[in-house]
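Hi F.,

I've been meaning to write this up properly since the lab meeting, where we talked about keeping a consistent format for the predictions we share between groups. The idea is simple: the sequence comes first, exactly as it goes in, then the structure tokens exactly as they come out, then a line or two of notes. No screenshots and no reformatting. I'm using this chain as the first example so we have something concrete to point to.
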Amino acid sequence: AVVSTQSTGKGGKSVVSNGKAWATSSGYSLGGLGAKEYPSANAAFKACTKASTCNGVVKKKSGKYVIATKSTKTKSTGATSYTVSSTVAVWGDYSWTVKSGY
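Output, unedited:
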């Protein structure tokens, strides 16, 4: 499930879901969009985390979500792109960035 939405401090937002923090970009799409549409962001995030070729998720103008194999952003009216910005762990009411090697 989508755990939280947070401001990134750069005018964007980050959505925490399925162990990842997803940076959002309104008005942008990504390359290599898949044909399968998902009814919710959470379903698309879950599919993306399972697919080795997935680089992000796009909410299309129609409101449906698709996964993307390329991380290249292009302007697209009515679309929102989501790209993985970090791996997180959620405990209590907090999300923690996971860093390897520490």
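Notes:
Residues 6-11 have pLDDT under 50 and may be disordered.
The chain has one helix and seven strands.

If this format works for you, I'll send the rest the same way.

G.
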